[in-house]
Design a protein that fits this description.
The chain has 7 helices and 13 strands. It is 18% helix and 27% strand.
């Protein structure tokens, strides 16, 4: 079987385990069905910006040409640092886009992918956001009416808890043991009074996520198309947005958003 075209981050379905689908060209093969099989990716050198569609020699911020990286609302700094969002003040790279995406309900969450971390996402991206990060379990911490306020809460907690995932430990399935309800109570005590109103005090449900993996890598070796025009081997599993190959190799699909790829199996 062969599929080819511009590739985008994998789509997911929260099942037991997670099901993964790879958008490639106009097709959407279920790549999690290929675990245990020998597959091959080929890259011919073409990259197209996911915002303007123009060809680019280099991809910035997972899929943008340089011009769009500097101007597109999807690549604004507040995507990474939500506390910098100005949509609630009527400001932004594209205020209509900001209204649609940032002036809406957001959640602050606690998740365990390797260690424990705090993060922010739109309510519509749960549990997709957690799966994309390779989280094994997660809990809602706070709900806010916009992105900015979630960012403010995240900043208040970042001095006590990380906002990043140790992706190598996550891929090796080295998961720390945390009681998320206990951690949630600890984090509540660290918030200033004016932010406590947003905490989801009654929400105690923990989302558990299992990934389709036959074998985790022992020593992570990252591979990519910028250095290797062809990547092939046995697909041992998928976690986060990574394909886990034999010989401890891992391929970050999201990093290559916009690349024109051929998949054969």
């Amino acid at each position: 079987m062969e599929h080819s075209g511009q590739v985008f981050k994998m789509r997911v379905e929260h099942d037991d385990p997670v099901r993964y689908f790879l958008p490639i060209g106009d097709e959407l093969p279920e790549i999690s069905e290929l675990i245990g099989e020998n597959i091959q990716f080929s890259f011919g050198g073409d990259i197209f910006c996911i915002s303007c569609g123009n060809k680019t020699n280099k991809s910035f911020a997972q899929g943008f040409c340089y011009n769009c990286f500097m101007s597109a609302p999807e690549a604004a700094e507040c995507i990474i640092r939500p506390e910098l969002c100005l949509a609630h003040e009527g400001k932004g790279r594209d205020i209509e886009w900001e209204k649609e995406h940032h002036l809406q309900e957001h959640f602050v969450y606690l998740a365990v992918a390797s260690g424990i971390k705090v993060g922010v996402t739109r309510s519509t991206q749960i549990p997709t956001r957690w799966i994309d990060q390779g989280a094994s379990r997660a809990i809602l911490f706070a709900k806010t009416p916009n992105r900015y306020l979630s960012g403010v809460i995240e900043v208040a907690l970042k001095g006590h808890i990380s906002d990043k995932t140790n992706w190598r430990r996550m891929l090796k399935n080295e998961i720390a043991d945390y009681d998320l309800n206990e951690e949630k109570e600890k984090m509540k005590s660290l918030l200033p009074d004016e932010l406590l109103q947003y905490v989801e005090s009654e929400e105690s449900d923990i989302t558990h996520i299992e990934y389709p993996v036959d074998q985790f890598p022992e020593k992570v070796k990252s591979v990519g198309f910028d250095k290797l025009p062809e990547i092939s081997g046995v697909l041992n599993g998928i976690k986060g947005q990574y394909l886990l190959f034999d010989e401890d190799r891992v391929l970050n699909i999201r990093k290559h958003t916009g690349y024109v790829i051929k998949l054969q199996y």
